[in-house]
Amino acid sequence: MYIDFCEVITIRGIYKDVATLRQDLEEWELAVLEAFGAKMTDKENPFPCIPATIGNKTNQLRYGYIGYPRSNTTTVELVQLMKNFTNEAIMYGPNTSLIVFYEITDNMKEDYTVEVYEQLFWRQLAGLSVCDEMDWPKNISYNPHHPLWEFCFNGEKFSMYCATPAHKNRKSRHFETMMLAITPRSVLEEFGRSESFASNIKKQVRKRMEKYDSIEIHPDLNSYGSEDNFEWTKCPFHQFLNLFKQ
Questions:
Q1: N or C: which end of the chain has fewer CB within 10 A?
Q2: Phi, psi of 164 (to 5 degrees)
Q3: Radius of gyration of the chain from Cα atoms?
């Protein structure tokens, strides 16, 4: 029904950070990759998300570079990256995530607020859903306000993290460009396999976050399945989904 929007276009594939491949990156791509690496390896101020730092250290993270986030063609680029990642993630290792960097303008870096980036984030997710060729899993609520809701694509469940230049005080969500970190639910489940291990990791993450951010831990940050487990309280997911369907 949405062939015009979801048609396959030729894009670059998923990138593994190997020294010999860095020479093929554009200037802005190399800059954000190096900034991300510095963030993951900072020993004086460790990044709060321990699974992410492990994935970076073991080189199990994979990267994608796409364009301006307001462009429909950029959403299609994201669709292709997600298709490739869901089909190949099992081969990347138990600590993998897909890190997606957007190419944004100086105006976006300087003027866009957290709220504007929030709308862009949900627009991206809605665009992915419109182009998803597989049905939404029946055991996952389609309502983003449900505590057991999580984003699904290509039959797989994912945790979706978004960082932006506008997050000045919550530094755990600050980055030089708009960035997504897309983690398969299976990766998080592996960390939670041992209750004592998961509890220890969660305590360490919260302890790091208290030092990392200059404001209190977000009240909506909670464990999957908790009644108040929401990434952003106001979720326009269906609003953007309907927009793409018009």
A1: C
A2: -145, 160
A3: 17
Report which residue type is found at 176.
E
Residues 222, 110: contact at Cβ < 8 Å? no
Domain spans in the chain, listed from the N-terminal domain onward:
14-245
Residue 78's pLDDT is 96
| Residue 56, pLDDT score | 96
Helix/strand/coil percentages in the chain, nearest 5: 45, 10, 40
**Token reading at 238:** 């269906």
Instruction: Look at residues 85, 65, 67 and name the one whose alpha carbon lies nearest to residue 186.
Output: 85
Sheet holding 156-163, edge to edge: 62-66, 98-102, 179-184, 156-163, 151-153
Bridge-based pairing state of the strands 98-102 and 62-66: parallel
Instruction: Check if the beta carbon of residue 96 is closer than 8 Å to that of residue 117.
Output: no
What pLDDT is attached to residue 14?
93
Task: Write out residues in the chain with pLDDT < 70, as ranges.
Answer: 1-12, 217-246
SS3 of 212, please? helix
Residue 64 main-chain phi, psi, to 5 deg: -140, 145
Q: For residues 206 and 21, what is the distance between their CA atoms, to the nearest angstrom?
A: 35
Report the run of H or E that residue 75 belongs to, with start and end. Answer: helix 72-92
| Spatial CA neighbour of 205 closest among 189, 190, 223, 193 | 223
For the whole model, what pTM was predicted? 0.86
pLDDT (0 to 100) of residue 228: 44
Q: How much is the pLDDT for 45?
A: 93
